[in-house]
Write a structure and sequence with these properties.
Elements lengths: L6 H9 L3 H23 L2 H18 L9 H23 L19 H15 L3 H13 L3 H8 L3 H14 L2 H14 L2 E7 L5 E7 L3 H10 L3 E6 L5 H7 L1 H20 L4 E6 L8 E7 L2 E8 L4 H12 L10 E9 L2 E9 L3 E6 L2
Antiparallel strand pairs: 1-2, 1-3, 4-5, 4-9, 5-6, 7-8, 8-9
Length: 355
């Protein structure tokens, strides 16, 4: 996990605005966060969504981390809390799910045959283990993390991790232990897709690489045009070059800002750099009725990548010389496609909801 720059150095670099540093942290810990989420949820697809949410929370909260060298265990607590929140929501909302939702995850084929059997056997085998042993063995298997690396993440000692892993392996018979290891390694391999439905609505999603052909077939059977498929797991150097960790975080933050604005019946959104003493300088406000309401504040280092994300969504080049830029954003909202008119300058993003 720490074969390159130290975590503290990467945290400091991220806060200073060097976005590739956070991409390196994502590359370093993505499998561990996925392992924590799967340990709590027992569902591979949901674990990947939770892992992404955990990194978004970590990115937005970096300025509150006093000791950057403690990033690993701090991230573990965020991931574990995010996974437990997801588990509670799943229990509370299961009966309210809309089977006709266009959520991309619902387009995925249900596991069948041998794959479903193996997945069930792996879940049942892991469920037999005590919680600390299950978490340790999942982290150990998912990317071959050493006992010392797992200990750093969990905030314990290598000896304690070694004991937990050994105890777990002893309880799992040999062939089942091999099956668990194989399945966990397989399921962390993912592919990402983008597709448009017959009406032009954008759908994005992530699934296991082994399910790629089935997902593409299912999408096309429903009239979707699949535009981008990224198979496999990106190498750490590619993540750093493309700033993918920060970009994915900003995609999720932008979706939350726009989606919540529509849910709150806001007519406009304003994101601006302010200078209030003792507060994070980046303020997000909604215009509801005739009054502006502040809904969140985030650190200043979030501004450049978030601004770049909204520019991408609107097809605006932030490298242009013009100081004020405008465009339109199409945004999928349950049951309809909504549009925002965006005006972007060096210190403010204004988004007006179009009829």
């Amino acid at each position: 996990m720490s074969d390159r720059r130290g975590d503290g150095e990467l945290v400091e670099a991220t806060i200073e605005g060097k976005q590739e540093a956070f991409g390196e942290l994502v590359a370093r810990y993505k499998d561990a966060v996925f392992g924590v989420a799967f340990h709590r949820l027992g569902d591979f697809e949901e674990a990947r969504d939770v892992a992404q949410d955990a990194f978004v929370k970590a990115y937005l909260g970096l300025s509150k981390l006093r000791d950057g060298d403690a990033f690993a265990h701090w991230l573990y607590r965020i991931a574990d809390g995010t996974a437990m929140d997801a588990a509670r929501r799943r229990r509370g909302e299961l009966s309210l799910e809309n089977p006709d939702s266009l959520d991309a995850n619902r387009l995925l084929p249900s596991p069948t045959g041998d794959d479903a059997l193996v997945a069930r056997q792996v879940r049942e085998a892991l469920a037999q283990l005590a919680e600390p042993d299950r978490l340790a063995v999942v982290l150990h298997y998912v990317n071959g993390y050493s006992h010392a690396e797992v200990a750093q993440f969990l905030g314990t000692t290598p000896g304690a991790v070694k004991t937990r892993v050994s105890r777990a392996k002893a309880k799992l018979r040999k062939e089942m232990a091999e099956m668990v290891e194989t399945k966990l390694k397989q399921e962390k391999m993912v592919f990402h897709y983008k597709a448009f439905d017959p009406s032009g609505r954008l759908v994005t999603g992530t699934s296991t690489a082994s399910s790629a052909n089935a997902v593409v077939s299912r999408l096309r059977d429903r009239g979707y045009s699949v535009q981008v498929i990224e198979r496999g797991q990106r190498a750490a150097r590619e993540l750093r070059l493309e700033h993918r960790g920060v970009r994915e975080a900003m995609e999720r933050v932008a979706d939350v800002i726009l989606g919540q604005a529509l849910a709150d019946r806001a007519s406009a959104v304003k994101i601006e750099l302010t200078r209030r003493k003792g507060e994070s300088p980046l303020a997000v406000t909604y215009l509801v009725g005739e009054a502006w309401h502040e809904v969140m504040r985030v650190p200043e280092y979030v501004w450049p990548p978030l601004r770049a994300q909204f520019a991408r969504m609107a097809g605006i080049s932030v490298s242009e010389e013009a100081t004020r830029r405008s465009g339109t954003i199409a945004f999928p909202f349950p049951g309809e496609q909504r549009r925002f008119r965006i005006l972007l300058d060096e210190r403010t993003i204004r988004l007006d909801v179009l009829p």
